[in-house]
Each structure stands twice: as structure tokens, then as C-alpha cells.
Amino acid sequence: MPADTVGAAAARRDEGVRRVTRMTWRAGAAGVICSAIIAVAFGHHAEASAARPGPASPGTIVVPNQPPAPGRGGGHVVSGAS
């Protein structure tokens, strides 16, 4: 294989590697920026909903601070199936 052909092939390979490297860095940077935007959006939403303590409005679910007390039954459960 002539030296000119080897040199040209190496130059094309190097240019291709540079292009792939550039695209990889750009894709990584875009991912970081999108992640930051999503984090800010969700962080702001959580902050806004946590800042509104007060009585529950109709249609909302209120989670109690303690689990419900056990029932007074004997602990025996009978299913309706036979």
C-alpha cells in the first residue's frame, strides 16, 4: 500500500474520531442541561406544594400521622368463599 494512501486513510480516521468526540461532548452537555432544567422544575414544584400547610380542601387525600389502630375483633377472618 503506498504511503500516500496510508496517510490519507489515517487523516480521514482522525477527522472521524474528532467529529465523534465533538458530537459526544455536545450530547453530554445537552443531557446535563436538560437534567438541570428537570431538577429545577421538580424542585420548585415540591417547594411550592410543601409551603401550603393548612386544612385539606375537598377532594384531597389526607395521610394520617399514625397507622390505624387494630380492630377489636378476635383476629379470626372468615372469607365469603366456600
Q: Features of this protein?
A:
59% helix; 82 residues
Could you please describe the fold and organization of this structure?
With about 80 residues, the protein is mostly helical. The protein is about 60% helix and about 0% strand. It has 1 helix and no strands. It has one helix at about 5-50. It starts with a helix and ends in a 32-residue tail after the last helix.
Topology:
Blueprint: H1 3-50
Based on CA inertia axes, which overall geometry fits?
Answer: elongated
Main sheet specs: none
β-strand percent reads under 5%
Which structural class is indicated by helix and strand composition? mainly alpha
Compute the number of helices.
1
CA(first)-CA(last) distance: 87 Å
Helix content: 55-70%
Give me the strand/helix succession.
H
Outline the low-pLDDT stretches.
none
Task: State Rg.
Answer: 32 Å
Number of strands: 0
* Mean pLDDT across all amino acids: 80
Put the structure in a nutshell.
The protein has 1 helix and no strands.
